[in-house]
Amino acid sequence: MALLSVFTPVLAVVLCLVIGFVLVKSWDTKTTSTSPGKSKGATKGEKRPWVDQDLQDDTEITAKEDDDDADDDWGDNTEEENLTQLPYSPQRYPEETMLQRSKEFYTLMNQRRSVRFIRPEPVPREVIDHVIHTAGTAPSGAHTEPWTFVVVSDPDIKHQIRLIVEEEEEMNYRQRMGEKWVQDLAKLRTNWIKEYLDVAPYLILIFKQTYGILPNGKKKTHYYNEISVSISCGILLAALQNVGLVTVTSTPLNCGPKLRLLLKRPVNEKLLLLLPVGYPASDATVPDLKRKHLDDILVHV
Q: What backbone phi and psi angles, to 5 degrees, belong to 281?
């Protein structure tokens, strides 16, 4: 009994340590599986770049996959069940013309660069409207066209956008992105200071609509909305290059919610891309980058 009385406190301490270890381990596992920098299936010790949580594509959700309480929020659009099928016969070119046009378009697009030095010279608004109209020709999942292009030219709003972006970007560079990411950007001489947000005559903010709103107020699923909007952004870049304007593709990490509120956009929209648009400054420079050779990006099967 004396021996047992001596070991009882020791056993209690050991038991507490074991329970504490199990709880801590369980908490670590839970935190790791839900932390921003990790993804499902990541191997142990594998590091993932920090990403903007506002851009995580959680929108391939149908009414059936939602909680039972939210089923009534979703509806079906049956107005266009029987779409008319029209004959389609685009212009066909001789092979020599096709080759020539393909070379000319490559030459045009190969001149496209990310330009951070933009002059404040005004750009005709009608030109901007037409390039965005062109971006709206992009394909989209089930033809939902899940994009909204917000064009900002008001100097005060542009400056407010700059303040929001620079505040978050400084935090991104100093805390969130990690040393390797910052080092990879150093050669491009970019940082959290974004003067072009004040200087460029236009800022185009592209929002993805995570779902649509039917006339009856019900939600409409927007399939592959992020991919669809990304395709439209690519067409927009080509349209800007075609008219001689420059931009830099800006993904303002963690700025989406604040910018959405500033621009009074609805809750079903999330910011995907921000483009300052204008003419290049007279002293504009770009890094001397080389693009991959065709053999490095093309595989014929």
A: -65, 155
Using an 8 Å Cβ cutoff, are 268 and 209 in contact? yes
Compute the distance between CA of residue 217 and CA of residue 292 in angstroms, rounded to an integer.
48
This prediction's pTM: 0.74
Q: Is 220 left (phi over 0), alpha (psi -120 to 50) or beta?
A: beta
Task: Locate 14 and state its tokens.
Answer: 């050991």
Q: How far apart are CA 12 and CA 170, in angstroms?
A: 49
The per-residue pLDDT for range 212-230, each reduced to its tens digit, is: 999 998 999 999 999 999 9
Phi-psi region of 155 (alpha: psi -120 to 50; beta: other; left: phi over 0): alpha
| Residue pLDDT, tens place only, 56-103 | 544 333 333 444 445 678 876 655 667 899 999 999 999 999 999 999
Task: Tell the burial category of 117 from Cβ atoms under 10 Å away from its Cβ (0-12, 13-18, 19+).
Answer: middle
